[in-house]
C-alpha cells in the first residue's frame, strides 16, 4: 500500500548527486592532471593515512589500491548512466567539474580544451534528456600541484588560480548550466581540512590559524565566483554548500546545552553566515580571540565577500549529532566527519551513522529561520552493504525506508514554511566512498558491478529503490 505525502511545490528539483572524483575514473585521460583524490588509497584506513604526518601525496601501488583511478568509469559510460537517470525521471543531476581536467596543474595560463569538451558532452547529454545540471565548482579534487607546491588554500595565490578556473567554466557553460555551487561541504574543513583545503595542520598550535586563514581565502574566492556568475549569466543561481548536522544537547544540563549551542554555531553556521550574510558573524570574534587567530585580510576582501552573497544554501544531511561537554571514549558515535555521543533514541547505519529523519526537518527549519533564502538538499542517502540475489535483483528495502522518511521530513518542513528548491539523493549510482574508498559502501539506486579489490564488470543494474524513486518523482513526492 502506498503511503501519501503532501504534494511538493510545482517545479521541485528531484534528482541525484555525485562528485567527479568518485565516479569519473579516466584519471589520466584527456590531459587531466593529478588531484588530491587521485592519491587517496582505498580502504577503511584511508583518512588516517591521509592525515598522518608522513603522508607525502604520492601514489604507491606496492602498498595501496586506488579505486578513484577507474571509479565507475563514468568518463566513458556517461551516456548509459544519464539514460538511466532519465528513466527515473530526474529533473536535475548534481555533479562536479574536476578542476584538473580544466587546469591540470591549477596554475596554467590557458585551460585544457579536452577537459572543457568532455563536460560540454556531458551537459549536452543531460539537456537532451531534459535534465538540468547542478554543478559544484570545487568538490574535494584540488589540483595536487597546488597542494604540494603552494600549500593549498593557506596560500593567497590560490585565490587567483580559482578565479581563473571559475571564470573559464562559468563563461564556457553559461548556456548549459543554470545552477552552481562554489565549495562542497566547505565547513567540513573545521574537522578535516585536507580534502577541501589541501593541507593537514602542522600541529595543534597552528591548526586554527591555518584553517581560518584558508577559510578567508575561500570566502574571497567564493565571492569572486558569485559576482562573476551573476555578471556572465544573470539568470543563473549560485549557492554555497555546507555539511549540516544539527547538534542536540545530551541532556538538559545547561553546561551541555551551551556546549551544543557553541558547536552548532561554529560548525553549522559560521561558513553559512559569511556566504549568505556577507560578513563574519559576531560570535566568531570571541573564538578568534581565545584561539589567538589573526587573519590577514587584504583591502577590498570584505567588500568582495559582502557583494558576493549566494542565492541559496545547498546542504548535505545524513545524520544529527548528540554531544556533551565531557565524554568518554565508550560514549562516542561515528559520523560524517563529525561525531558526538550515542543517541539512545536512534538506530545507526552499517557504518555507525545515526539515522534521524526528524533531524532533517529540524535542520531545514533552523536554516530557513536564520537566513530566509531558498534551501536545496543536495546530499542525503544511506551507505549500506547491498546483496545481489540469485535472479540478479537487489532488494534494498532498507534504503527505501531511509529515503522515504527523509522525503517525508522534507514535506513537513515545506508545510512548516521552509522554501525548499529540490532534493538530490547522494550517490544515485554506486560510487567510490569518499571517507573509506570502498565500493561496498553503496548508496545508489543503480548497482555497479565493482568490488573493493577492483574486480567486476562495471555492469549497471537497477535496484528496487530505482523503481521506488521513479514513482516518487512521477508523483512529485506524493506517492512514497
Automatic annotation (TrEMBL):
InterPro entries: GH (IPR017853), GH_1_N_CS (IPR033132), Glyco_hydro_1 (IPR001360), Glyco_hydro_1_AS (IPR018120). The keyword Cytoplasm does not apply. Gene3D superfamilies: Glycosidases (3.20.20.80). Keywords: Glycosidase, Hydrolase. GO terms for molecular function: hydrolase activity, acting on glycosyl bonds. The active site is at residue 379. The keyword Hydrolase applies. Pfam families: Glyco_hydro_1 (PF00232). Its EC number is 3.2.1.-. Belongs to the glycosyl hydrolase 1 family. This is Glycoside hydrolase family 1 protein. It comes from Neobacillus driksii.
